[in-house]
Amino acid sequence: MKTLGQFLISHDEEKDLVLLLERIMLSCKEIAVQLREGALAGVLGSTDITNVQGETQKKLDIIANEVLKRNLLDLEMVAGIASEEEDLPVAGNHKGRYLVVFDPLDGSSNIDVNVSVGTIFSILEVQSNQDCSHPDAYLQRGRQQVAAGYVLYGPSATLCLTTGDGVHQFTLSDTGDFLLCQEHMQIPTSTQEFAINMSNQRFWEPETQHYVGDLLKGADGSREKNFNMRWIASMVADVHRVLTRGGIFMYPWDNRDPNKPGKLRLMYEGNPMSFLVEQAGGLSTTCYGDILDIEPKHIHQRVSVALGSKEEINTLMEYHASARDNTAAKLNT
Ligand SMILES: O=P(O)(O)OC[C@H]1O[C@](O)(COP(=O)(O)O)[C@@H](O)[C@@H]1O
Ligand SMILES: [Mg+2]
Ligand SMILES: [Mg+2]
């Protein structure tokens, strides 16, 4: 079985990109060890620090962020990093070629209950002469990503990666290597499984209520088939299920804070996951347009997300087609 490095070299990936991806995986291995030891290492629980999103940081949010930051800023090809857990980006080598944007630990609310979490990353290329300690240097559309991926820390640690030529899956072995286990993952085009936090139902816009209402009616409603529901509350784990066996994952706009376009973050959640999903034959949308086409305005910008099986996303879009001028559409475009 090929290691990640062997696979990337055999696909003619640029040497610096290979080294960078290997360094991200080295970081993920360190994070996996901390997660495995959990309570034994005293790393569970919260801190009293609030991040720029207004969320209380877990001890492991900070540890994972520090591991990635330390390992990446050490590399010559890294011009800067931006993270969910950093107010502002941090500049690296001013001659570096790549910017790395990441969610060091996704699904933080699951850490203390020993449920799957993950690391999400997006790699961009520096545009000419930019100050990489400034957020503007990172504000590129999702379509400009050079690579994106995540590591899911579940029963096994799994990497799903794209460099723009399909999505490939690797599993962390006993020897400490990420070994190739599946090339060109494909999301089935149709599905009977959905993932959404139903407790927010009363806050959704009418089109989302209508769409999910019809899923719940199953074979007795207009969809004429039954749907199953899953919600892990770690985007990484929910998206991994979609990549593996199909489905639709949604964190739509809601009116709890009408000025926020959604809960999830564009640069280190929406964009990398959308790149992976599109590369695996699925679709990713705000309900009004492709996530990968959004011109970002802020590094911690939020976005409404619906991604997964092609036919299901197209159906969801039809429910929203009559409401293109509403608030949610305006907030995202
Ligand atoms: O608590 P909720 O509303 O179920 O939200 C869960 C969502 O929030 C997130 O945990 C946000 O990510 P972070 O843990 O990185 O802040 C997603 O992974 C997940 O899909
Ligand atoms: Mg997250
Ligand atoms: Mg996070």
TrEMBL record:
Cofactor needs: Mg(2+)
Family, per entry: Belongs to the FBPase class 1 family.
Biological processes, Gene Ontology terms: fructose 1,6-bisphosphate metabolic process; fructose 6-phosphate metabolic process; fructose metabolic process; gluconeogenesis; sucrose biosynthetic process
UniProt protein name: Fructose-1,6-bisphosphatase class 1
Positions bound to substrate: 106-109, 197, 263
Gene3D superfamilies for the chain: 3.40.190.80, Fructose-1,6-Bisphosphatase, subunit A, domain 1 (3.30.540.10)
Fructose-1-6-bisphosphatase class I N-terminal domain residues: 3-183
Annotated Fructose-1-6-bisphosphatase class 1 C-terminal domain residues: 187-320
